[in-house]
């Protein structure tokens, strides 16, 4: 057993603290090349990660950087810095701790490179940027440990891929560096261990005591959830009652828009003026920091929040978590519940609030899954190539490199372990020459091979542009919102597409306030406080969760019961009603409902194949419908169904579900749809083909910038086998297409299609009308709409005699 | 192909869905803002390596417009090349292609802000062209009459039943027509931009390009 140095031991003793067994474990095994800790929220993970560092640094003088700490959240980096600085100061340890994020000043960043602290706290993106500097070897010289906090949050993301590639670079620079991962409870620790370790070396895993099972229930409400919709407004009185009964409550929502609406109505009902704040990723930094500080100071009784509070910052006094809306994923639910871990040994307390009746079913399925410890996991995919292309560019910024050395280094990263030479060469060629069939850029290559075989940037000035584009997070184009007038306070951001639909006088909700749109000035949305209209719902970007397959299957099985005594009466009645007016979906059959509404014809397909497959199904079906002249206009998909609308009714669905026709359609369909274009855009930005739009630099209405859709169409037409298109197809298949589950569903139903034609919306299809993320179909239907509008509007203004 | 014919300054003009303008009285085809060689220019200046196919894409569409209208005269309304060096660097294949399109007809290059000087290419280089009631120039001038210009790459957006549609468009008012950009790699300027508002009058109409030309009142689009 490795003992704590006396100075640390004394510090613990004077506080009457003792270290947890898993913290001692981490100390004992600190010599392991890779060490992963799995501990529940509140289990002192971060301290467990830092103890060996503090012990090392307390024992003797270490020159330069000793430990690099990486967290997925900027806020977490600065929070940890504060938490470390206090004990370091109290013990008088000679340790310098600094953080480095996008918010750190340029002067400070420069100084950190010249004279690094002992402990540097940063994010994956800032680390990637650090490795792009020519002086990286000097800065990282002597680095002993790299700690990746909340590694589970990076596991299934490109940020994680970028991070592990950067770590492989660090390992080459510092062969003796130890890797440490800190993770919340997950279904498959081995998968995270593989991500952390240098491939093919093993990784040691420390499993902390998971603590007692959470106390998790449905929130009892007097009013029943609505037939459809999200947001859980009906539950506000019951939620307020819970807030009153607890010290501090976190109220989680699945989307930012829902958090805004809920917060707005919560305040309208908040007669006791309980201090309640709101926190989500589209609010301005100032706003978020104010809320965080108020929370730390114990001034707030509740925070309405989204995934932005999933990670990190230990609020301490949170004693209740309320999840509004179906949790979609059991693993994340368990992690969120952990936020209410007042004390490690006490069970955390959580309440689920289904937003509508379908979600009552989903929530019940999730409760059963939590009780069964049935955490859902996804299969890890091969490392994405767009991230690899960016990694090559970053490597080139740091100086000339040998291609084979780089390939070997990349293969030490788990997800890239089986990267072939040909695949690597493809990426290198793309980065160097564009990789086009038409060799156009011989004179203007990005990377050149020197006579000695090393690769380098043709123009060293390109480093600036490459560094500005580092990162894998895709921010959709957003506009800042602030109050009108000189020095108007910033409120947050809204999507450009939403801003484009606003006309002066329209109102919307942001940061819990209703504001009035006044106009657009230099790419900023200016608003005033005059709220004289019913607010529109702002669309914010933000992660949308998909219900896991495990949960979907549980739901389908629940439907098969004759009655549902466990469900609230209203929900059971609703399912009975659905069974009465239409039918309930069955495992071996496919239910399709068709009905008219609001001058459009709707078709709802209950495939229960998961959001991605249902989305693909929507794309393929609308394509077939376009061919059959049904003039489809768009569709929306959830985890259990796809709702399609168009100008003509669907009479016979059978021809739509011919597997061969669907598969034939897949390839040609892949070419021209909006999802592919969206996928292309993000991959092209990551791979360095398109520059990110940098807020502030983008001028209003510049005609020089053109849409990435144009590049996609051009490539598709002139160079269909180009690497970027292959990456787009791969990405789409792994992310948004999921065709295998459609095949599986069609095989499963074996031609048993139940087509029910009705004269109105059915109980089960109603929630789909409120889903976001509608995909437009750009076909004949759209042209008809446009032509009708033209006739109408031209006549309206008396211009029909053009 | 649904072409839209409209009256303008005592004559008739045809808006093509591709964004080209045809003047039947003079068998004249007019296109604006081709921006040929844009990808080459971006690469040369150390930017990213965009798919180098925009010149082929633009010339293909131009060839289709020429085949459709069989013009005696073609007027390229400025910014035909993304810069002069891009014009010089045009690959032989594309030069020959242009040359083929020029055969048997008059070809006029109006100068633009991107290509302000003559290039080593066949055709007549002019600052502007006056013909009958019309004046062809790159950038619209206040107080002009019968003016055909380009430069701004106008695009129009409209929301129909919750659907946001945005397309390059012609703008037509009593005194002038502003053409959309014809080049493949071109973005657009919103109709509602103050610069364009200052050039349009109450009778103005936006003619949206696309599968067909769709006329919409200027005041109803954004």
TrEMBL record, chain A:
<dbReference type="GO" id="GO:0003677">
    <property type="term" value="F:DNA binding"/>
</dbReference>
<dbReference type="GO" id="GO:0004386">
    <property type="term" value="F:helicase activity"/>
</dbReference>
<dbReference type="InterPro" id="IPR014001">
    <property type="entry name" value="Helicase_ATP-bd"/>
</dbReference>
<dbReference type="InterPro" id="IPR013701">
    <property type="entry name" value="Lhr-like_DEAD/DEAH_assoc"/>
</dbReference>
<keyword id="KW-0547">Nucleotide-binding</keyword>
<dbReference type="Pfam" id="PF00270">
    <property type="entry name" value="DEAD"/>
</dbReference>
<dbReference type="GO" id="GO:0006281">
    <property type="term" value="P:DNA repair"/>
</dbReference>
<dbReference type="InterPro" id="IPR026362">
    <property type="entry name" value="DEXH_lig_assoc"/>
</dbReference>
<dbReference type="InterPro" id="IPR011545">
    <property type="entry name" value="DEAD/DEAH_box_helicase_dom"/>
</dbReference>
<dbReference type="Pfam" id="PF19306">
    <property type="entry name" value="WHD_Lhr"/>
</dbReference>
<dbReference type="InterPro" id="IPR001650">
    <property type="entry name" value="Helicase_C-like"/>
</dbReference>
<dbReference type="Pfam" id="PF08494">
    <property type="entry name" value="DEAD_assoc"/>
</dbReference>
<dbReference type="InterPro" id="IPR045628">
    <property type="entry name" value="Lhr_WH_dom"/>
</dbReference>
<keyword id="KW-0378">Hydrolase</keyword>
<keyword id="KW-0347">Helicase</keyword>
<keyword id="KW-0413">Isomerase</keyword>
<dbReference type="InterPro" id="IPR017170">
    <property type="entry name" value="Lhr-like"/>
</dbReference>
<feature type="domain" description="Helicase C-terminal">
    <location>
        <begin position="235"/>
        <end position="388"/>
    </location>
</feature>
<keyword id="KW-0067">ATP-binding</keyword>
<dbReference type="GO" id="GO:0005524">
    <property type="term" value="F:ATP binding"/>
</dbReference>
<keyword id="KW-0238">DNA-binding</keyword>
<keyword id="KW-0436">Ligase</keyword>
Automatic annotation (TrEMBL), chain B:
<dbReference type="GO" id="GO:0016787">
    <property type="term" value="F:hydrolase activity"/>
</dbReference>
<dbReference type="GO" id="GO:0016874">
    <property type="term" value="F:ligase activity"/>
</dbReference>
<dbReference type="Pfam" id="PF00149">
    <property type="entry name" value="Metallophos"/>
</dbReference>
<dbReference type="GO" id="GO:0004519">
    <property type="term" value="F:endonuclease activity"/>
</dbReference>
<dbReference type="InterPro" id="IPR026336">
    <property type="entry name" value="PdeM-like"/>
</dbReference>
<feature type="domain" description="Calcineurin-like phosphoesterase">
    <location>
        <begin position="28"/>
        <end position="124"/>
    </location>
</feature>
<dbReference type="InterPro" id="IPR029052">
    <property type="entry name" value="Metallo-depent_PP-like"/>
</dbReference>
<keyword id="KW-0378">Hydrolase</keyword>
<dbReference type="InterPro" id="IPR004843">
    <property type="entry name" value="Calcineurin-like_PHP"/>
</dbReference>
<dbReference type="InterPro" id="IPR024173">
    <property type="entry name" value="Pesterase_MJ0037-like"/>
</dbReference>
<keyword id="KW-0436">Ligase</keyword>
<protein>
    <submittedName>
        <fullName>Ligase-associated DNA damage response endonuclease PdeM</fullName>
        <ecNumber>3.1.-.-</ecNumber>
    </submittedName>
</protein>
<keyword id="KW-0540">Nuclease</keyword>
<keyword id="KW-0255">Endonuclease</keyword>
């Amino acid at each position: 057993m490795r003992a704590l140095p006396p100075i640390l031991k004394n510090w613990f003793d004077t506080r009457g603290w003792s270290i947890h067994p898993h913290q001692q474990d981490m100390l004992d095994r600190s010599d392991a090349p890779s060490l992963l800790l799995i501990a529940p929220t509140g289990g002192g993970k971060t301290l467990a990660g830092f103890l060996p560092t503090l012990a090392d640094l307390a024992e003797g003088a270490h020159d330069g950087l000793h430990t690099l700490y990486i967290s997925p959240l900027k806020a977490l980096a600065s929070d940890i810095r504060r938490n470390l600085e206090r004990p370091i100061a109290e013990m008088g340890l000679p340790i310098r701790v600094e953080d480095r994020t996008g918010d750190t000043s340029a002067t400070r960043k420069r100084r950190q490179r010249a004279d690094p602290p002992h402990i540097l706290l940063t994010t994956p993106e800032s680390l990637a940027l650090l490795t792009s500097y020519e002086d990286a070897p000097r800065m990282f010289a002597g680095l002993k440990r790299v700690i990746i906090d909340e590694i589970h949050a990076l596991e299934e993301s490109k940020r994680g891929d970028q991070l592990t590639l950067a770590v492989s670079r660090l390992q080459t620079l510092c062969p003796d560096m130890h890797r440490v991962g800190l993770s919340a409870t997950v279904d498959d620790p081995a998968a995270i261990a593989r991500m952390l370790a240098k491939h093919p070396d093993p990784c040691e895993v420390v499993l902390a005591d998971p603590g007692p099972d959470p106390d998790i229930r449905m929130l009892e409400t007097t009013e029943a959830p609505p037939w459809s919709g999200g947001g859980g407004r009906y539950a506000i009185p019951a939620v307020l009652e819970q807030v009153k009964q607890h010290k501090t409550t976190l109220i989680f929502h699945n989307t930012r828009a829902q958090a805004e609406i809920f917060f707005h109505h919560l305040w309208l009902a908040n007669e006791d003026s309980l201090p309640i704040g709101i926190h989500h990723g589209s609010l301005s930094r100032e706003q978020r920091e104010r809320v965080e500080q108020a929370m730390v100071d114990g001034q707030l009784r509740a925070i309405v929040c989204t995934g932005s509070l999933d990670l990190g910052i230990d609020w301490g006094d949170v004693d209740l978590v309320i999840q509004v809306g179906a949790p979609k994923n059991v693993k994340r639910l368990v992690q969120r519940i952990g936020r209410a871990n007042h004390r490690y040994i006490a069970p955390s307390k959580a309440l689920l609030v289904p937003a509508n009746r379908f979600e009552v079913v989903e929530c019940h399925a999730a409760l059963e899954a939590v009780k069964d410890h049935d955490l859902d996991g996804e299969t890890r995919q091969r490392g994405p190539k767009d991230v690899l292309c960016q990694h090559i560019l970053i490597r080139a910024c740091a100086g000339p490199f040998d291609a084979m050395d780089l390939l070997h280094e990349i293969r030490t990263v788990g997800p890239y372990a089986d990267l072939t030479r040909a695949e690597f060469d493809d990426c290198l060629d793309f980065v160097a020459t564009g990789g086009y069939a038409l060799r156009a850029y011989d004179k203007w290559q990005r990377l050149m091979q020197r006579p000695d075989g090393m690769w380098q940037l043709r123009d060293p000035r390109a480093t600036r542009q490459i560094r500005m584009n580092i990162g894998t997070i895709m921010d959709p184009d957003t506009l800042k919102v602030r109050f009108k007038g000189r020095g108007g306070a910033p409120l947050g951001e809204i999507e450009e597409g939403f801003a484009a639909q606003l006309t002066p006088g329209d109102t919307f909700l942001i940061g819990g306030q209703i504001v009035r749109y006044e106009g657009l000035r230099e790419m900023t949305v200016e608003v005033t406080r005059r709220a004289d209209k019913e607010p529109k719902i702002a669309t914010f970007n933000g992660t949308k969760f998909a219900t896991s397959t495990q949960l979907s299957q549980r739901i389908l099985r629940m439907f098969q019961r004759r009655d549902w005594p466990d469900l609230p009466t209203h929900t059971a009645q609703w399912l009975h009603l659905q069974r009465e007016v239409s039918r309930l979906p069955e495992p071996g059959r496919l239910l399709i409902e068709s009905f008219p509404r609001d001058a459009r014809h709707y078709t709802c397909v209950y495939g229960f194949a998961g959001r991605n497959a249902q989305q693909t199904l929507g794309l393929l079906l609308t394509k077939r419908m376009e061919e059959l002249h049904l003039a489809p206009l768009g569709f929306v998909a959830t985890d259990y169904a796809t709702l399609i609308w168009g100008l003509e009714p669907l009479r016979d669905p059978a021809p739509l579900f011919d597997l061969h026709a669907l598969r034939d359609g897949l390839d040609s369909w892949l070419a021209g749809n909006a999802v592919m274009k969206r996928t292309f855009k993000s991959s092209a930005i990551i791979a360095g083909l398109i520059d990110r739009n940098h807020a502030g630099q983008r001028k209003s209405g510049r005609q020089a910038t053109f849409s990435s859709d144009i590049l996609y169409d051009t490539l598709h037409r002139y160079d269909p086998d180009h690497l970027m298109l292959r990456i787009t197809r791969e990405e789409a298949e792994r992310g948004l297409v999921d065709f295998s589950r459609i095949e599986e569903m069609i095989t499963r139903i074996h031609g048993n299609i139940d087509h029910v034609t009705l004269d109105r919306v059915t109980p089960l299809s109603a929630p789909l009308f409120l889903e976001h993320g509608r995909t437009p179909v750009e076909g004949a239907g759209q042209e008809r709409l446009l032509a009708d509008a033209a006739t109408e509007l031209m006549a309206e203004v008396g211009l029909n005699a053009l | 192909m649904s072409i839209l014919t409209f009256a303008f300054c005592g004559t008739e003009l045809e808006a093509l869905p591709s964004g080209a303008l045809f003047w039947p009285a003079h068998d004249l085809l007019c296109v604006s803002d081709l921006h040929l060689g844009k990808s080459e220019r971006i690469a040369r200046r150390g930017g990213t390596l965009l798919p180098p196919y925009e010149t082929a894409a633009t010339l293909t569409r131009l060839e289709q417009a020429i085949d459709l209208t069989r013009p005696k005269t073609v007027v390229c309304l400025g910014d035909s090349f993304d810069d002069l060096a891009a014009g010089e660097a045009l690959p032989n294949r594309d030069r020959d292609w242009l040359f083929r399109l020029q055969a048997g007809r008059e070809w006029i290059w109006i100068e633009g802000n991107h290509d302000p000087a003559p290039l080593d290419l066949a055709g007549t280089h002019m600052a502007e062209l006056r013909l009958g009631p019309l004046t062809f120039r790159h950038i619209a001038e206040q107080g002009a009459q019968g003016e055909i210009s380009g430069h701004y790459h106008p695009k129009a957006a409209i929301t129909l039943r919750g659907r946001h549609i945005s397309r390059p468009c012609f703008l037509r008012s009593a005194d002038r027509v502003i053409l959309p950009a014809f080049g493949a790699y071109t973005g657009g300027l919103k109709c509602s931009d103050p610069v364009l508002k200052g050039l349009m009058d109450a009778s103005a109409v936006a003619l949206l390009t696309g599968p067909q030309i769709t006329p919409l009142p200027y005041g109803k689009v954004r």
